[in-house]
Amino acid sequence: MSKMSELSLVLDELITCGENMIKAANALKEIFSSPTEEINTAPAVKTDKPAEPADKPPAKTYEFTDVRKAFSAKSHEGYTEQVKALITKYGASKLSDIKKEDYPALMSDLEVIGCHSTHD
Question: b/e for 26-62, b at 16 or more Cβ within 10 A?
Fold first, then answer.
């Protein structure tokens, strides 16, 4: 792998980690900067179904090529063992055996690999 493509992969990973940190920081900011809830004197109304989050973002959809590209990049970065373990975690022996509905969770798990200062 050329130095430029290796650098590009590392920078992409750094950007992804940074974006995830920004999301976490914004969530914390929203939690701690929200106005104090007023005390409600009216009796609470109970419902049978649980409350759903108001601003739940739609799950990102992934194609097999997206997943394969991300896995290849992690493997080239030196995380081959962690990549193989992740495939096994989803009950597969190879990437193409993983169900498409598992791709969002799989990609979330993959993003965490390499965000630490040392290889696991």
Answer: eeeeeeeeeeeeeeeeeeeeeeeeeeeeeeeeeeeeb
